[in-house]
Amino acid sequence: PPPTHPLTHHRQLLWSVRSVTLLMASTNSDELALMLGQGPVMREKALRLLSQLDDSAIVPHVRTIWPILEDTEWSVRNAAMMLLGRLEEEAVAGCIDVITDALTHTSLNERCQALEMLERLDGGSLAPHLDILIQLLTDSEWPVRSAALEVLQKFGALPAPLGPHLPALLLSLKDEHTYVASQALELLRALASSTAGLRALAPYAPKLLAVAGCLAG
């Protein structure tokens, strides 16, 4: 291709400088979100500026931010991850639909990010999403299975919701990845720490003993 004329290059550089200057001066989340569709430098700066705003200003734009976790530029992906990673419990609850949708995405990064955010909620808030969390115990990727068990730890003191899903948890004791299996064991121990939990586990005592024998062997 023919070389870029110096004047054209100068104008492009001037436009870029002006755009970044305007971006740096903006504290409006809507304006910043619009910049997420620009080049990588603008996307990264917009994300970093968004991270300086209150959670309430970020929540309406989480659905726009989420695909950037798969951005072609590492620095942009990292900025998106850092932004989502700082949202606190109330903000996470405010964008729960976006997060639970991501649990079904093919991207390992997106599934793990969603589960990491769900860890900030309590068992009561997570209860409506328990079925999909249980499904992830058979995910093809062990980091997802591990992250799902971390979230399920929130139910350790709430045996009633987990009761119907105990067979799935027992299967996790045989997970091919030993760390995941140990997490499942810890969750079952937490359940067994209460009288209600022991009652829920009682029908599965033979299976638990069989698994214990395998682990000992």
UniProtKB/TrEMBL annotation:
Listed Pfam families: HEAT_2 (PF13646)
Gene3D superfamilies for the chain: Leucine-rich Repeat Variant (1.25.10.10)
Signal peptide extent: none
Protein name according to UniProt: HEAT repeat domain-containing protein
TM regions (residue ranges): none
Molecular-function GO term, any one: oxidoreductase activity
